Inverse folding.
C-alpha cells in the first residue's frame, strides 16, 4: 500500500475524532471508500485511539480525596486530633505558652501540615522537629551546658522542665534546650551531643505508669521512648541504636 | 472514556461571577472555590499526571503538588472551563517534576521540527506490506505495550495524545490549553498516534 500524505492522515484523525464538518466528512468518506490506503490508515488510527481509550483510569482513593480537600482548610491544623490532656495544670501552662505555640507553629508547622497527606503520628512529629532543628542555625533556643540555665529557661516558658543533667563525663554533653510544638502542644526538648551527632530528648507530661525504653525508627532517625518521673520521654538522633541506648541508660541513671 | 462531568463547560460565566471570583481573598471563599473547581476533576488530573509522568506511583505526588498550586492560584481562576484550567496546572507541574526527576534523560522539547522529522521517518519505514492488517495487530496489543508506547513518545506529542484520548478534550480546548495553533495540535496528534501505532505493531511478537 502506498503511504498517504500527512494532510490526509490529519484529516482522517479529525474525522475519527468527530472534528470535521458534515460536508468535509462526507467528502473524505467517499475517498476512503475508493482508496484502500486511506481505509487502512483510518482503521489503524481508530484502533490506536481505542487502545488509548481502553486504558484503565487511576482511581481517586478516599484517602487522596480527603488529603486534597484538607489543603483548602486553613484551619485544618487546629482540628488535628491532639493527645488527651492529662490534668488541669497542663492547661494552665499551655495558655502561658500560647505565644510560643503560635510563633513556632507559623514558623514550622503550617507548611508541614499543608503538605501532609494525613495527620502525622507523634513519633513522626518528634522526628520532624529534630530534623528541623538540625537544619536551623542552631538546634537549641537556649545554649548552655549548665542545667541551672536550661531548666529555668524551660520552666519560665512552659512551666515544666525535665531533669537536665550534663552527661559530658560519659561522652554526652548537654548543649541546651528548645521548645518543640507537637500537634499544638508546646513541650520542652533537651539537646545533647555525642561526637558530631545531635540528640533531641523530648519530654511530654505524662501521668501514665513508668515503662522501659522501647527502640524504633521514624523518618530515618533512630528513636527510643519510655515513661518515667511524670514524663513521656522520646529521644531521636542519627546515632547508632546501641549508642543511643547507651545515652538513654546514662540519662536515666543521672535523672533518677 | 467519554462522559466527563460537563458542569465546567456548561456553567454560565457571567460578569457577576467573575467579580465575585476576583474578590476571593478570604480563605473561606477560596476553600469553597477550590472545592468547586478542583475536587470534581481529581480523577482527570491523576490520569493526566499518570500518563505524562509515565508511572502511577508519582501521579498522586504530582497531583497533590498541582492542587497546592491551584489553591494558591485560585484567585486567578476567571470562571469558564474548570477542568481545562486545573489540567493546565497539572501539566505544568508534571513537566517541572519530569525536569527535576529525570533531568539526565529528559528529551527537551527543543526544536519541534526535529520531532516532526522523526515522526515522518518513522512512518516511512513502518508502513510496509504485512499479511495481517496493522489495525488488527494494534487491537491485540495489551495495556503494558500501550503504556510503554506512550512513554516512548516525545513530550510534545505525548501531551496532545493524552489530553485528547485519555482526558477527552476537543482540538480547540487543547489548542487553548497549550497555547498552540489548532493546526499544530492536529499535526502532533496525528503523528503521535501514528508513532504509537508503529510501536504497537512492532511490539507484536
Amino acid at each position: 500500500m502506498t503511504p498517504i500524505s500527512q494532510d490526509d492522515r490529519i484529516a482522517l484523525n479529525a474525522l475519527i475524532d468527530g472534528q470535521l464538518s458534515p460536508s468535509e466528512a462526507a467528502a473524505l468518506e467517499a475517498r476512503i471508500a475508493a482508496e484502500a490506503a486511506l481505509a487502512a490508515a483510518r482503521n489503524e488510527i481508530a484502533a490506536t485511539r481505542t487502545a488509548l481509550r481502553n486504558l484503565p483510569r487511576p482511581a481517586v482513593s478516599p484517602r487522596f480525596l480527603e488529603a486534597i480537600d484538607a489543603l483548602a482548610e486553613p484551619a485544618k491544623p487546629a482540628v488535628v486530633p491532639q493527645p488527651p490532656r492529662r490534668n488541669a495544670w497542663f492547661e494552665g501552662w499551655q495558655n502561658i505558652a500560647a505565644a510560643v505555640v503560635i510563633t513556632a507553629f507559623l514558623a514550622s508547622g503550617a507548611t508541614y501540615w499543608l503538605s501532609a497527606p494525613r495527620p502525622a503520628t507523634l513519633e513522626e512529629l518528634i522526628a520532624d522537629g529534630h530534623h528541623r532543628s538540625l537544619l536551623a542555625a542552631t538546634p537549641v533556643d537556649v545554649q548552655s551546658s549548665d542545667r541551672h540555665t536550661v531548666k529555668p529557661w524551660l520552666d519560665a516558658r512552659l512551666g515544666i522542665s525535665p531533669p537536665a543533667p550534663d552527661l559530658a563525663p560519659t561522652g554526652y554533653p548537654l548543649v541546651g534546650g528548645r521548645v518543640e510544638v507537637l500537634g499544638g502542644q508546646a513541650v520542652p526538648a533537651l539537646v545533647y551531643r555525642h561526637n558530631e551527632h545531635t540528640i533531641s530528648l523530648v519530654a511530654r507530661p505524662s501521668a501514665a505508669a513508668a515503662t522501659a525504653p522501647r527502640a524504633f525508627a521514624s523518618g530515618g532517625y533512630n528513636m527510643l521512648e519510655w515513661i518515667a518521673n511524670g514524663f513521656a520521654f522520646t529521644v531521636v538522633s542519627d546515632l547508632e541504636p546501641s549508642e543511643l541506648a547507651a545515652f538513654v541508660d546514662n540519662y536515666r541513671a543521672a535523672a533518677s | 472514556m467519554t462522559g466527563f462531568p460537563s458542569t465546567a463547560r456548561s456553567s454560565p460565566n457571567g460578569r457577576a461571577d467573575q467579580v465575585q471570583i476576583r474578590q476571593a481573598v478570604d480563605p473561606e471563599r477560596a476553600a469553597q472555590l477550590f472545592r468547586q473547581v478542583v475536587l470534581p476533576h481529581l480523577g482527570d488530573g491523576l490520569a493526566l499526571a499518570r500518563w505524562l509522568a509515565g508511572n502511577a506511583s508519582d501521579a498522586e505526588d504530582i497531583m497533590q503538588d498541582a492542587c497546592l498550586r491551584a489553591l494558591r492560584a485560585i484567585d486567578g481562576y476567571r470562571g469558564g472551563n474548570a477542568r481545562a484550567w486545573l489540567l493546565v496546572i497539572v501539566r505544568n507541574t508534571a513537566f517541572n517534576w519530569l525536569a527535576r526527576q529525570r533531568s539526565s534523560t529528559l528529551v527537551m522539547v527543543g526544536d519541534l521540527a526535529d520531532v516532526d522529522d522523526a515522526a515522518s521517518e518513522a512512518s516511512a519505514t513502518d508502513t510496509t506490506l504485512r499479511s495481517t492488517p496493522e489495525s488488527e495487530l494494534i487491537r491485540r496489543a495489551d495495556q503494558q505495550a500501550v503504556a510503554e508506547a506512550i512513554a516512548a513518545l516525545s513530550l510534545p506529542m505525548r501531551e496532545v495524545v493524552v489530553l485528547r484520548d485519555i482526558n477527552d478534550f476537543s482540538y480547540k480546548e487543547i489548542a487553548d490549553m497549550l497555547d498552540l495553533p489548532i493546526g499544530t495540535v492536529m499535526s502532533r496528534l496525528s503523528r503521535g498516534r501514528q508513532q504509537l501505532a508503529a510501536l504497537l505493531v512492532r511490539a507484536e511478537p
Observations:
- Chain B touches chain A through 54 residues (CB under 8 Å).
